[in-house]
Amino acid sequence: MAADSTKKMTEGNPLGLILGFSIPMLAGLLFQQMYNLVDTIIVGQTLGDSALAAVGSTGSINFLINGFCMGICSGFAIPVAQRFGAESYDSMRKFVGNSIILSAIFAIVITTFVSIFCFQILEIMQTPEDIIELAYSYISIIFFGIPVTFLYNLTAGIMRSLGDSKTPTYFLIMAAGINIVLDIVFILVLGMSVDGPALATVISQLIAGLSCLIYMKKKFPILKLKRSDLKLGPHHSQVLISMGIPFGLQYSITAVGSVILQTAVNGLGTIAVASMTAGAKVSMFVVCPFDALGGTMATYAGQNVGAKNIPRVKKGVWTAQLLGTIYSVFIFIVLYFAGRYILRLFTSTDIVIEQAMMFLLANGITYTLLAAVNIFRFAIQGMGFSTFAIYSGVMEMIARILVAFTFVPMIGFSGAIWASPVAWLFAVIFLVPGLYYCCRKLEVKFNGEYTHHL
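Now predict its structure.
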């Protein structure tokens, strides 16, 4: 029998299940973005626009590396969700054990690589000379914490795959509070520069990761591993890598386009970088519901594929898209009327506020596309087609590169603000028919298995 801490998503009203699962995830994401916002507000208001630009200039490379790490962990959780949905618990535990070993290996290799080449990457990105030292001080500490990123995201991903989206949220909220306190202590009390917020982020995430690990050991008897579960097996490790690497690459391929776009924006000067940073920080906060819906659909689709219920997967996807569309309309109205007041939390420079507002409105009017990108992509990945989902990331990358090499040189910052909307459009054109292609493949597979057993 499954443990009490787990939750099945293979039966019941999809709307209620999706809301019940996504709301705790949303709360966690909001608190995570809240302490990111606090970092930015404190940096912008106490250390100035140069420090704000320095932190912002690392955003795309941070997403490239840490997004790859988080993607790997999300991919590792998919086979766990599928085996849980199929009630194949012995195999599920072997996947959990193998994912722990593989995560440790990836963490060591990635941390070593980026630590060696961090400064050179910032130079290649044409980070302005007046902020490159600050940027390096910030991002080098963030990259040193990559093993911590693996710890939290793997443990949280495993719990979510078993239907528990609340507990990782509680620990993330706790970490957010700790992060805010550490920000104040490091910057306002100890007088640290941008290295203070970076260190606070790593420490708070470490506490969240350790808390998840301890909770899992005590509250999930279904995850009680044997020594044999912690030995890499050819089948289980191959399945995990085939899920994790494409999941991570999807994040990174998308980020490559962002890095190239950031490089183009860096060439426009510090004011442009600060404007993009302020706008992106607000945007990252308000798009959390789309991330929550995406994460929910990965678990929902994974468990229902394990239960071989493809019509239920499709119904859940469109239910989630309806929720995403309703929210898109609501948040655009909020940004239109309140955006400038929100941006003043980060900076009092009028030109930065006006350019950041242009960025927010261009993104906000197309948020329904972002909702679709997250919902359809994560559903496809939850169904087991991680490699297929990479192609949507390629489409996003191509779109951002096109904007970086065409719109930005021609019209400057006004062109850069349309990079994400164009990227989302390219991805959606691929993902919607892609979902139905994947559903059809699984239906044929399951019908064949049924016929074979007859």
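The chain has one domain: 14-453.
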